[in-house]
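Submission sheet (multi-component)
Chains listed below:
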Amino acid sequence: MSDHSSLMPRRREMHPEPYWTDYKTSLTRSPNLPLLSMESTVSEETGPRFGHNLLGSLDNNLILNYSQGKELAIGERIRVHGCVLDETGRGVPHTLVEIWQANAGGRYRHVKDTYFAPLDPNFGGCGRTITDENGFYEFMTIRPGAYPWPNRANDWRPMHIHFSIFGHAFGQRLISQMYFQGDPLIDLCPIAATVRDRSQLDALVAPLDIQQSRGMDYLAYKFDIVLRGRRQTMFENKPEGM
Amino acid sequence: MVQKLTQWTETASQTAGPYVHIGCIPTFAGIEGVYPEDLGLSPISIAAKGQVITITGSLFDGTGWAIRDAMIESWQADGAGLYAGQVGADPNVSGFCRFAADKDTGEFILKTIKPGPVKNRDGKMMAPHISLWIVARGINIGLSTRVYFDDEDNSADPLLVRIEQGPRVDSLIAKKTAAWQYRFDIRLQGQGETVFLDL
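Outcome: structure written.
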């Protein structure tokens, strides 16, 4: 099978509304005009690849990677694990997964975050890994805190971890957020609400995975991610119209 | 009844938010020492074949304000029109770059080589172009577009010819400002809105 067959069209109705009144910043940053749709080309069907040699040994451990193994970050210890799949259900091997998040108090280590919850001197908030040959990945981190943000006067972000995934094609590029089972702020959040299909929003909520948790150490959460698939056909490279 | 189609649905996008740099360009956020260097610092190494060019631009929101918190990724072919991973591609062109709008001015700069025309699967040639993917706070699903060049023949490009309103083609064409320098502004919404893609 060629790796360069065309991508399945993106099902935009399964994605957030670009323009969503309750998320104020989206009002001036969403296109008014329709997107130009056509079949993917080689420019979308190829994409950057990253090798396992990119990774340092602590890259997927946010509890330790900011201090480079010297001190532990503060917070509830969690392990986040899952599979990167595509729409055909196959695992996506050897693809880069990056995450970022607030610390246990809900504060980001970023020059522009001015929330008064304190920084943790041992928490940076970024991590990365590459899926194995079956599409599996895992991180160790701390549970991020919920935090207030300037939108409506009393808006709070539910606890969440940002995910960035490459796949094998630039047209598969995806950034999303993982929420935590049972967080009552999810249903109050205007950013979560941009996803109108309830099953699609539910798919952003990671369940507690008690059997993968480790006593006296960490709780586990499972978060599977699905990327766009490719059509599987030998009729892919025929001249147009033939 | 019919046989069941077993298909998964793509995970819903969510905004990258204002702190996307923490995960994608940590040094921009002020985070040093987790990784040896940021990913995608340059799409080329020094021995890359082709003409080095610089593309400068800003991203304007619907009010005309240059946004300061966007992250952009670019993906392109080498000087001969081949993508990394394709047979014969220039090993000195990764083709991938990450860059941010400046946090004070909103301007971005991409230094790369000019890509060659790319042959598509159906044998048709696409004019030289660089694919961009834009994320930021307030962008709920990443925006895709392409940079073409005003000193190339774009007349038969299979994507550009699909744009019904002729003047809108201009929004995808970088303007030469000096030798090997181009300007490419992106308008997210409103007057002169950039053509965004769903490919």
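Remark: The mean pLDDT of chain A is 95.
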